[in-house]
Amino acid sequence: MRHAVETTLATGSARLLYASRDGELVPEPEDIHGEGVADLHKGRVWISYRSITKRDAAGLLRKRRSLLTELFTRISRRPRELYFDPATRYKRKRDGSWSEGLPLRSWEEWERSGFHAYTRETEHPLWLLQPLARLQAELGDATPEEPVRGVETRRYSLGLTADEIPALIWDELAQPHALPPQKAHRWYRPGPFPKPRSVIPALIWLDSEQRIRRMSYEARSYHPWESNGGEQSWWITTELWDFGVEIDRAPPSAPASQEA
What we know:
Blueprint: H1 2-10, E1 13-22, E2 32-39, E3 44-49, H2 54-63, H3 67-76, E4 80-85, E5 88-91, E6 102-105, H4 107-112, E7 119-120, H5 129-134, E8 143-144, E9 154-160, H6 167-174, E10 200-206, E11 212-222, E12 231-241
Parallel strand pairs: 6-7
Antiparallel strand pairs: 1-2, 1-12, 2-3, 3-4, 4-5, 5-6, 8-9, 9-10, 10-11, 11-12
């Protein structure tokens, strides 16, 4: 697996897509959060990002149609230009300048800050490359797949553990929402809280040159007020193509003092 990561990074750059979808492995156009370009050597990403997908927005409106929901989905569907380096996220402000960089931290730190002073490490579209590079197990049998953007690939199923995933991210992914019962918000029902996972399912699609064309992992959340019992899962996907593309964007040089 390390060889596939190194081969991918050696291309230097690529165009990038970021998406999420409930229960399905392959995202469709309505599941896309945004597209951009990645500097694979330096772990930098520029992306036009929407907080919720078109599919999720439609689902919210079907479930709870109100002026407040319509306003929320309209605001959340507005594209925002984001920039990531390996440890920080920046957001383009309305005047064209960049916000102050927010450090990428764990879910618990993000929660303690009131959900605004930090941003979660898993927001970085390339974060999965690090645990993939640490994976010691051999790739198993591949599943032939439909082409990814016209390129033939083979899909491999993986299981990532705390040995591969950095501790801050593991705390978030192993436990739905990474909120132990004693730290749960007032609207959470009292136990039983879902058991932590010991393995995080992941998938990669490799082309004939052993480059990663698509990588996904299964995330979970816990919403006890939902009628289905509260536990939900979905696949978060990063897709790469056009390797070696020229990057004509610059990182923020003088970020403003406050987040937009």
